[in-house]
Amino acid sequence: MFSRQAVCRRAAAGLSALVQDFGAAASATSGSAADTVATHLHEHDSTATSHLRSSPFAPFPSSWRSVSSASNVLAPALDREVAANTATMSELLAHMGGLHAAARAGGGAVAIARHRSRHKMLPRERIDALIDEGSPFLELSPLAGRGLYGDDDVAGGGIVTGIGKVQGRLVAIVANDATVKGGTYYPITVKKHLRLQEVAAQCRLPCLYLVDSGGANLPRQADVFPDRDHFGRIFYNQARMSAAGIPQIAVVLGSCTAGGAYVPAMADECVIVRGNGTIFLGGPPLVKAATGEDVSAEDLGGADLHCSTSGVTDHYAQDEAHALAIARDIVAHLPLPPTASAAAAGAWQEPLYPGEELRGVVPADARRPFDVRAVLARLLDGSRLDEFKTNYGATLVTGFGSVYGQEVGVVANNGVLFSAAAQKGAHFVQLCAQRGVPLLFLQNITGFMVGRAAEAGGIAKDGAKMVRAVANADVPKVTVVIGGSFGAGNYGMCGRAYSPHFMYMWPNARIGVMGGEQAAGVLAQVEAEKHRRKGKQWAPEEEAKFRAAMTAAYDTQARPEYASARLWDDGCIDPADTRQVVGLSLAAATANVPRISTNSRFGPFRF
């Protein structure tokens, strides 16, 4: 197991220590493309403005590294069109960078100025002040809400969520952005908040809520309030996680109105700021309407009232900096997590190839195949992979490797899934589940094979074996879509419906029930049959127009920005940062969970 006493304020072991102080020694990504990473890892530095700051990961000194046999070292050649591939990826990264810059701008200059005039920090500034200096912060779903409500823009979904380190341990953070619609909860805000709680529950991470919200968005209350996974689920989750021993900590930095008042009320410990922090079920206007009473927000639900009279809050802060310092002290006194046993007993070797080359691995033409081992060689420790069933089901690459010393079972597409590949995948996933080894899925899949021979060979039942194995593998899972994610292949490769702990997409990735051209072809056949039944002739130019419209619609809905806006993933990442993002995700997923699964009732079946 890894231990770095020099960078741990407290005795934290295992992979939770892995992300403590991976600072400037790492080879930082450079250039404008590096500034466009969607899900960002950044060093804690309030003066930095780029979305991706210097890489938070650094290797141990060379004397700490271990080197094993070279027989399992990957050495695949890069695609012959690497320069063109890199140029195409750079264009995609620049496009995504513009979208993320707009999301980081929150409610705009006027709203930000008004916010600052109240002596309030912006949400990301609050997070920077909360997390350990120099430690990474993994922001999730920064494009949430983009384009969902027409001209009613909800930048970032009106909330910032992610994982960072406080007092040497990983925590889940929710920070309301009051510059966006007063911090009120739109449907996507609720969804993003619940997603972070889901991550926290899966990974058993303490939750810190930086509260500054006007509560539910009243014009959209029908889509925010009544259903199972609406606003009330936030407080249900708080209660359940607290009962399960997952700490719930709230810091009230602004308004906390109506149902939102239950965020601090249901927290295990709560801090409130004098002057700006308020908590009440009904604000002054509602009190006036209901009782005729005139009362100020401070008198109705301010820090003095709740810390000295009502007892709703536990800690009185003079200002935001004081409040966040108190929150850090609270975390410092939480029980230490159990010692993680999943880290390797020693240290790791950096990949033999630079991560920046991942920008040129995937062909610009998505129809051209490439060897996924070229990705793995730039992702895994020492570029080493112990392949499982190398010569069987060759369109699926499976095997054991490690990322920052954390052992992982790799399941990576290398073509369409035939029956043999599906059987191989099911066997390997069961093997990892039996051993308690986390799974890393690299998706680039058009689906399972179709056709008479495939159906006769049992592709449906073989695909079902893989889907069943993935659904029941009770180990941490991280999914990265590096190309296509289509049809049932998405299911077998641990898509969102299969609850991976984290799921990310590259800018070139596409996701959908099928590709645009294929969907247009199927729908055109259906439409042509309708015309025939009516005795009408479908003009070729009308058919062409129909196909073009369907292709465009499917292609738009398959893009990563469309997916991220709807939280189909946890963010779109720069390929060059895949190793760092996966490393921190694995650290979060394994820090507080036992290595060996206790829910496996059978050993692996050999199909």
From TrEMBL:
Residue intervals of the CoA carboxyltransferase C-terminal domain: 77-350, 350-592
Upper taxonomic lineage: Eukaryota, Viridiplantae, Chlorophyta, core chlorophytes, Chlorophyceae
Protein name from the UniProt record: methylcrotonoyl-CoA carboxylase
InterPro entries: AcCoA_carboxyl_beta, ClpP/crotonase-like_dom_sf, COA_CT_C, COA_CT_N, MCCB/AccD1-like
Membrane-spanning ranges: none
Chemical reaction(s) catalysed: 3-methylbut-2-enoyl-CoA + hydrogencarbonate + ATP = 3-methyl-(2E)-glutaconyl-CoA + ADP + phosphate + H(+)
Domain CoA carboxyltransferase N-terminal: start-end pairs: 89-346
Metabolic or biological pathway, per its Swiss-Prot or TrEMBL entry: Amino-acid degradation; L-leucine degradation; (S)-3-hydroxy-3-methylglutaryl-CoA from 3-isovaleryl-CoA: step 2/3
GO cellular component, one term: mitochondrion
Top-level EC class as recorded in UniProt: ligase
Origin superkingdom: Eukaryota
EC number from the UniProt entry: 6.4.1.4
Pfam families attached to this UniProt entry: Carboxyl_trans
Family: Belongs to the AccD/PCCB family.
Molecular functions (GO terms): methylcrotonoyl-CoA carboxylase activity
GO BP, sorted A to Z: L-leucine catabolic process
